[in-house]
Design brief:
The complex is a heterodimer of chains A (327) and B (279). With 327 residues, chain A is α/β, with parallel strands linked by helices. In chain A, 31% of the residues lie in helices and 22% in strands. Chain A folds into two domains: 7-229, 3-Layer(aba) Sandwich (Rossmann fold); 246-327, no CATH class. In chain A, β11 and β12 (314-316) form a beta hairpin. By secondary structure, chain B is an all-alpha fold. Classes of the chains: A alpha/beta (327), B mainly alpha (279).
């Protein structure tokens, strides 16, 4: 029997209106997210990578209900996300860890108040029970209960990110959206935080949607990786498959940009993309990547490829593979 | 950061420390003035008109033989009352307007901000004169007028700060956990926008005292026999050809109070800065 996905994005879109025409009619849109479909199963980590401005953070924000999609639907355990929002039970199931460990904690609240906030909002337990839970959470993320009375300013970036994780864990959610949670941290601290997230996942069996701009950052933690380009997923595959056999030219370019630890490999062929990322307000016709694609064909300018299975473990949106699938 | 820490930091700034002490002394004087004045400030002694400073009359007497020192002490009450009351109005009306405007946006924002723009378009003193003219001339009405004049500044400041705070990730974290507008404004926005508003209030405290004095000088504020530094200056001004000294005392009192308010504001700004370093 096929397992039911925990979260299911069905062709979600987020179009932001820019400017307005005569008589206040909105006539121009930035297509930040333009038809993303993605399933996340219980206990797995899906990495979402792409350049700045490709819509990956917007997708993450829609998953936790911070922003409403302008098209498509998000399902959580088979029910529409809006139902959870209406019942105010979204926070019990979905939480988020933010990129900036400094602005994600209210500087005027004590650490204990910050971590207990989701509990208070969901009226969980009495004040002393909540304090006990805060102590447990602090220990769970590698801090001590006496840290509870301090203010965020007294902590380092890595410690603050641990506090953010503790807050996200307070209500024992089933999915945590991690929006570049380590990109603001020192390299040495990054590994600690990634390991902590992994440990927590093993203990609690929760899922992560792990957003990052570098493909290397999600390699360690992800089971599957989705690559986004200009508001669309262009390749979605198992981690092993994606790294060993990348199909989409964009994924190949991303992988070839990763520095190789072996000096002998330094002379390997590098794919260097030329040109700038096109504006999502005015995306190119046909395949959105054709303006920078090293292997673009004539029909790429006309036909927008669909995300189709290219093996058991992978989906690719590229005309190079659409023919093979058809055959 | 607790209030205790802020106070300790404030007291470490020398100018702010002296300003704070000075203003506290003024507040105490404004309360106990009626009990400590050496003479009845409205009692006339026509035998001793415009006397020079002496052991009996420390600062001399005015054109009706009233003790200037006593009058100065009594004038403190008007000044402090005007200052405090005039910043209470924008704090209670302007700040909530600004927070709602910034947080809710849309129609609420449009309506509140157009009202504020309308008030700002009229010069402050003119507006204050108009309001006292409409409400009737008294010190209380002058204070209401000053409060209304200050409201736009506080509304705009609160709105700007709210706009900044409402998109902070910690607010978004609270939203994910199901926090409503009330919770976010109370727990996240107000504590974080308070520091710049406190600083603004301390600057406006001294400005309010100045405006109260100006209104009283123009005859739109405190009315005789009520004493204000402003109408003391006005009386002294009419006698300036005969005794130029009389105008100096209330003038000096106003200058020192305004300076103290400004120094306190500067000190508060430093003390409330999370990146504070003792210089």
């Amino acid at each position: 029997m096929k397992q039911q996905p925990l979260v299911s994005l069905k062709d979600i879109k987020k179009h932001f209106p820019v400017g307005s025409g005569l008589f206040g009619k909105k006539n121009h849109f930035v297509k930040a997210v333009d038809g993303v479909s993605l399933d996340i199963y219980p206990g797995e980590t899906v990495g979402l990578v792409g350049e700045s401005g490709c819509g990956k953070s917007t997708t993450g924000r829609m998953v936790v209900g911070l922003s409403d999609p302008t098209g498509g639907e998000i399902y959580f355990e088979g029910k529409k996300l809006n139902e959870y929002k209406a019942k105010k039970s979204l926070g019990k199931n979905l939480q988020m860890i933010f990129q900036d460990p400094y602005s994600s904690l209210n500087p005027r609240m004590t650490v204990a108040d910050i971590i207990a906030e989701p509990l208070v909002l969901h009226k969980v337990g009495t004040a002393s029970e909540r304090r006990k839970r805060v102590d447990e959470l602090l220990e769970r993320v590698g801090l001590a209960s006496y840290h509870g009375n301090r203010y965020p300013i007294e902590f380092s970036g890595g410690q603050r990110q641990r506090l953010g994780i503790a807050r996200a864990l307070a209500l024992q959610p089933k999915l945590i959206v991690c929006d570049e949670p380590v990109s603001a941290l020192d390299v040495s601290i990054q590994a600690q935080i990634l390991n902590l997230l992994k440990e927590i996942q093993n203990d609690m069996g929760l899922s992560y949607l792990f957003i990052a701009h570098g493909i290397q950052a999600v390699k360690h933690i992800s089971d599957k990786i989705a690559v986004m380009y200009l508001g669309k997923i262009i390749e979605f595959a198992n981690k092993e498959e994606l790294f060993e056999n990348p199909r989409h030219p964009y994924t190949k370019a991303l992988l070839s940009a990763v520095p190789h630890p072996d000096p002998k490999m330094r002379n390997r062929e590098r794919i260097i993309l030329t040109g700038d990322l096109p504006s999502p307000a005015n995306p190119p016709a046909g395949c959105s990547f054709h303006t920078r694609c090293p292997v673009a064909m004539e029909q790429c300018k006309r036909i927008d490829p669909n995300l189709l299975p290219t093996s058991k473990q992978s989906l690719t949106a590229c005309l190079l593979f659409e023919d093979k699938v058809a055959n | 950061m607790s209030i205790g820490t802020v106070f300790k930091r404030l007291m470490a700034e020398r100018l702010a420390f002296f300003s704070f002490i000075f203003l506290m002394v003024l507040v105490i004087i404004s309360i106990i003035a009626p009990f400590i004045v050496p003479y009845d400030p409205i009692e006339q002694d026509l035998m001793k008109v415009m006397a020079s400073p002496s052991a009996q009359h420390w600062l001399g007497t005015d054109e009706l033989g009233r003790d200037i020192f006593s009058r100065l002490l009594m004038g403190t009450k008007s000044a402090i009352q005007a200052g405090l009351f005039a910043i209470l109005i924008p704090l209670c009306i302007g700040v909530p307007m600004g927070i709602l405007s910034g947080y809710l946006g849309g129609v609420v924002d449009d309506i509140f901000m157009r009202i504020v723009d309308g008030i700002i378009a009229i010069p402050a003193i003119l507006l204050a004169l108009g309001i006292t003219g409409a409400l009737g001339i008294s010190l209380w009405n002058a204070m209401i007028a000053i409060g209304i004049v200050f409201t736009p500044q506080f509304a705009r400041l609160a709105r700007g700060q709210t706009l900044q705070i409402r998109s902070e990730p910690y607010v978004e974290a609270a939203k994910i956990s199901g926090a409503g507008a009330g919770w976010i404004m109370l727990k996240h926005i107000i504590p974080n926008i308070a520091p710049p508003i406190v600083v603004q209030a301390s600057f406006n405290l001294s400005f309010a005292i100045l405006v109260e004095a100006s209104l009283s000088f123009l005859g739109m504020g405190a009315q005789s026999p009520q004493i204000s530094w402003g109408n003391m200056i006005q009386q002294a001004y009419s006698m300036i050809n005969m005794n130029a000294w009389m105008i100096v005392y209330p003038g000096l009192a106003i200058i020192l109070t305004v300076l103290a308010g400004n120094f306190l504001g500067d000190g508060l700004r430093l003390a409330l800065d999370p990146k504070y370093r003792k210089t």
